[in-house]
Amino acid sequence: MSGTDLSLLLLLSLILLLIFLKLITRPHPTKIPIKSRHVFITGGSSGIGLALARQAVAEGARVTILARDITKLEQAKASIRASTGTEIDIVCADVLDFNAVKTAVESAGVIDVLVCNHGVFFAYEVENMEMNMIENIIGVNLIGSFNIVKAALAGMKKRTDRRPVSIAFMSSQLGQVGIYGYTAYSASKFGLRGFAEALQQEVIADDIHVSLIFPPETDTPALAEENKRRPPLTNIILGSSGSMKADEVAKKALNGIKSGSFFVHCNFEGYLMSIMTAGLSPQRSYLMAFVEVVSVGVLRIVALCFQWTWYRSVEKYYAKSKRA
Ligand SMILES: NC(=O)C1=CN([C@@H]2O[C@H](COP(=O)(O)OP(=O)(O)OC[C@H]3O[C@@H](n4cnc5c(N)ncnc54)[C@H](OP(=O)(O)O)[C@@H]3O)[C@@H](O)[C@H]2O)C=CC1
Ligand SMILES: CCCCCCCCCCCCCCCC(=O)[C@@H](N)CO
């Protein structure tokens, strides 16, 4: 066979692969309209959630935010009024308290886009965390999201507006890879992935579409707090990874939700991580599925190189601390 024959054969197989993927990727592509719809954001009084609330308002949504601290909620409402001239609704509840969550969700009215964004994080070695801190991180981030979804789902299913609706979870790149210092946090965010994958199969028949958002480090009040007490190795390992502004993450998140994407990445590093960690997760875009299929081998090599550098940092660090 000549060189041209070979390249023709390769081209033909790639085209056949594309056609095959277009036929089989599920769920089907969808679009979630935001304008004039009810967007409910937990943890909407600060950081990424507040940025998301402001942008949803700017796109014409009716927005409700939920958090614990009424003063921060009032401040968020005032700041959105000042920057957009629009009123949002605020509801007060601890996501750990199912009855409080249910009352808050019911008072807000039927939800079209539910964003479980609330979350807490601290970086410590598991040995240096009390059980109550571990339970708090997993409780708020994972069980809290169950409480929210359980409270909102029946209403979303019974909605009279038959257009597609969305349930989105704010995970983290640490929901795609475990890093030194984040045992509890990664466990909570990996947990959200299992929740989201199974939930999508349960709600697809009701035209409800699940998104999992994977932000990198994002400049928010919570990150500033966490940074004060990070283990040195956590800093060394995360040192070179990119960080973003809350507004930029919110924009990526909202676009991901509107396009009904299951995985939502926020930057180029996140794009590569989404391909690397695609595994058995659903994929709506046959083009993205194509990219996953053809690049998975090479990206596995890149992933192993990252692990190599991380383990070298750990080895060097402990070699030094033994000598000292
Ligand atoms: N910042 C970062 O680097 C990254 C953050 N993320 C994720 O993004 C999400 C938002 O983080 P970020 O904006 O940084 O955090 P912030 O601390 O700025 O905001 C957290 C929000 O969640 C609310 N909240 C916290 N605990 C509870 C609770 N028990 N019940 C109800 N509401 C609660 C807070 O309000 P109140 O305290 O009044 O209840 C606040 O509104 C989290 O899920 C986080 O894991 C993901 C990747 C990176
Ligand atoms: C080429 C392939 C790219 C692979 C690179 C992998 C880099 C992983 C870095 C993970 C960083 C996660 C930060 C999230 C911070 C967070 O969630 C906060 N809440 C906690 O600080």
From TrEMBL:
<feature type="transmembrane region" description="Helical">
    <location>
        <begin position="6"/>
        <end position="25"/>
    </location>
</feature>
<dbReference type="GO" id="GO:0006666">
    <property type="term" value="P:3-keto-sphinganine metabolic process"/>
</dbReference>
<comment type="similarity">
    <text>Belongs to the short-chain dehydrogenases/reductases (SDR) family.</text>
</comment>
<comment type="pathway">
    <text>Lipid metabolism; sphingolipid metabolism.</text>
</comment>
<keyword id="KW-0746">Sphingolipid metabolism</keyword>
<keyword id="KW-0443">Lipid metabolism</keyword>
<keyword id="KW-1133">Transmembrane helix</keyword>
<keyword id="KW-0256">Endoplasmic reticulum</keyword>
<dbReference type="InterPro" id="IPR002347">
    <property type="entry name" value="SDR_fam"/>
</dbReference>
<keyword id="KW-0472">Membrane</keyword>
<keyword id="KW-0560">Oxidoreductase</keyword>
<dbReference type="GO" id="GO:0047560">
    <property type="term" value="F:3-dehydrosphinganine reductase activity"/>
</dbReference>
<keyword id="KW-0521">NADP</keyword>
<dbReference type="GO" id="GO:0000166">
    <property type="term" value="F:nucleotide binding"/>
</dbReference>
<comment type="pathway">
    <text>Sphingolipid metabolism.</text>
</comment>
<dbReference type="GO" id="GO:0030148">
    <property type="term" value="P:sphingolipid biosynthetic process"/>
</dbReference>
<dbReference type="InterPro" id="IPR020904">
    <property type="entry name" value="Sc_DH/Rdtase_CS"/>
</dbReference>
<feature type="transmembrane region" description="Helical">
    <location>
        <begin position="286"/>
        <end position="310"/>
    </location>
</feature>
<dbReference type="InterPro" id="IPR036291">
    <property type="entry name" value="NAD(P)-bd_dom_sf"/>
</dbReference>
<dbReference type="InterPro" id="IPR045022">
    <property type="entry name" value="KDSR-like"/>
</dbReference>
<keyword id="KW-0812">Transmembrane</keyword>
<protein>
    <recommendedName>
        <fullName>3-dehydrosphinganine reductase</fullName>
        <ecNumber>1.1.1.102</ecNumber>
    </recommendedName>
</protein>
<dbReference type="GO" id="GO:0005789">
    <property type="term" value="C:endoplasmic reticulum membrane"/>
</dbReference>
<dbReference type="Pfam" id="PF00106">
    <property type="entry name" value="adh_short"/>
</dbReference>
<keyword id="KW-0547">Nucleotide-binding</keyword>
